[in-house]
Design goal:
binds zinc ion, metal-binding, globular, zinc, about 15% strand, alpha/beta, 6 helices
């Protein structure tokens, strides 16, 4: 039978390796060799939805997790995925979006107007002041915001974007999932034929939010 001292020796050395993982490159990958892209929404519990431990309890570390508005492919999401997939040993990407997303709640053109009415020139915005080379073409601001008409459609397009991106290795496993906030249920995204199988939450579009016109064509 192992002594407590032996158990503690093992625990201390394992924790030490965990703390210094990034010094080991791909060999020091996170527990699941996994990168998660999830919406920032407070009602989307990444650990519960995926059955993993991203950052709790201390010493967890199943995945690298990137959260943004919508859980969509943006330049910074691609930058983060590029780093973890090529240099930190990540072998799998999971995209996690959800029903009742705030990105369904308004039309991006109206959001752009909000800033224009305040006198902000949305055609000349420093997206990242530390990288002034990163620029939007004139008229692209509303599209950049990334509001959605349909969360299932956005999830599928986000998966495709990572699958086709030249900075993401072709052998990475990539999947997308929808968390139903109302029922705490995870399901695959569905569009077109079969969309009625969104059985519990049939309407995941912007319509219930009163959005009447289509978003700028980011997902088409
Ligand atoms: Zn959301």
């Amino acid at each position: 039978m192992a002594t407590l001292k032996q158990g503690l020796d093992k625990r201390v050395s394992e924790y030490d390796y965990w703390a210094k993982r990034r010094q080991h490159g791909p060999e020091g990958h996170n527990n699941c060799s996994l990168w998660v892209l999830a919406c920032m929404d407070e009602r989307l519990p990444v650990d519960e939805a995926l059955g993993i431990h991203v950052d709790s309890p201390a010493g967890g570390g199943d995945a690298h997790c990137f959260r943004n508005a919508g859980g969509i492919a943006t330049d910074d999401a691609i930058r983060s995925a590029m780093l973890t997939c090529n240099f930190f040993g990540t072998k799998e990407i999971v995209i996690l979006e959800h029903t009742q997303c705030g990105m369904l709640s308004a039309n991006a053109h109206d959001l752009e107007k909000y800033f224009r009415d305040k006198g902000i020139d949305t055609d000349n915005i420093a997206l990242d002041p530390t990288l002034p080379e990163l620029k939007l073409e004139k008229g692209a601001f509303a599209k950049w915001i990334g509001m959605m008409d349909d969360v299932d459609e956005a999830c599928i397009k986000t998966v495709e974007t990572f699958k086709n991106h030249p900075l993401i290795p072709k052998d990475i496993t990539i999947s997308g999932w929808i968390w139903e906030v109302e029922t705490r249920r995870l399901r695959a995204p569905i569009v077109g034929v079969g969309a009625e199988k969104r059985t519990l939450i049939p309407d995941v579009t912007s319509a219930p939010f009163g959005v009447k016109s289509n978003q700028p064509p980011r997902w088409k």
